[in-house]
Design goal:
Blueprint: H1 5-33, E1 40-47, E2 50-57, E3 64-72, E4 78-80, E5 85-88, E6 94-99, E7 107-114, E8 123-126, E9 131-132, H2 167-170, H3 186-194, H4 196-230
Antiparallel strand pairs: 1-2, 2-6, 3-4, 3-5, 3-7, 7-8, 7-9
Length: 231
């Protein structure tokens, strides 16, 4: 039995569809096994009080990759952490560890370079987001210092400020006045007010002189009267 031209044409079409389907399937499988940046992850960890940056590669295609870690400063300056490390991933994941005594709230950039496709890397990207370390370091005494509290109104005044005098101190004698100084006698105060203490001697002297003069005048007057009566 001979094969007609129509049957042969149909057979060729069927073979062409099958070949195209196989090519698409192989292409999809290749894409599924291709290395991708989403298959890499990184985190900051502690091991026995020591810090480290751990990178995990879950690339099922097993494409060789190189991992590089950089410490970012607040000013934007980057410092390499250790040396770049090579890793070949797997479906279950393969890890590489960078020993780093990281500080609380630090930031690290992790870069991945994997495979080559026409002399160009298949992957040449950073793992996003960047690795942020916890607020508490691997050592328990290493943590972010708390903010300094603002002084409240009830805060005790500084030592150099003069204390407020108490009621008992305010009622005492003013500074510079001695409480042991003797008070003036009553007589002295009266004499000081009338001025007698300054004129008593003078008055007594004048009175004595008048008494003497008066006595002499009487004596001479009586003597003169007796002489006149005799004559």
């Amino acid at each position: 039995m001979s094969i007609t031209r129509r049957t042969a044409r149909r057979s060729v079409q069927i073979l062409g569809v099958a070949a195209a389907s196989s090519a698409l399937a192989l292409s999809a499988a290749g894409s599924a096994l291709a290395c991708n940046i989403s298959e890499f992850s990184a985190e900051a960890k502690c091991d026995g009080g020591k810090g480290s940056i751990v990178v995990t590669d879950k690339d099922a295609s097993g494409t060789p990759a190189t991992i590089t870690v950089f410490l970012k400063s607040p000013a934007g300056v980057e410092t390499p952490v250790g040396q770049p490390q090579d890793v070949t991933g797997s479906r279950d994941g393969v890890t590489v560890t960078f020993n780093e005594d990281w500080k609380p709230n630090a930031e690290y950039r992790v870069h991945v370079t994997a495979g080559k496709n026409q002399n160009r890397p298949i992957v040449d990207k950073d793992i996003t987001p960047n690795v942020k370390t916890p607020a508490e370091g691997c050592s328990k005494d290493e943590s972010t210092p708390p903010a300094t509290p603002k002084p409240s109104e009830s805060t005790t005044p500084p030592a150099d400020e003069s204390p407020t005098p108490s009621a008992s101190e305010s009622s005492s004698a003013p500074a510079g006045t001695s409480s042991n100084a003797p008070s003036p006698a009553a007589g002295d105060s009266n004499l000081a007010e009338t001025g007698a203490n300054s004129n008593t001697g003078l008055i007594a002297g004048v009175a004595g002189a008048l008494v003497v003069v008066g006595g002499g005048a009487v004596f001479f007057g009586m003597r003169r009267r007796g002489a006149n009566s005799k004559s």
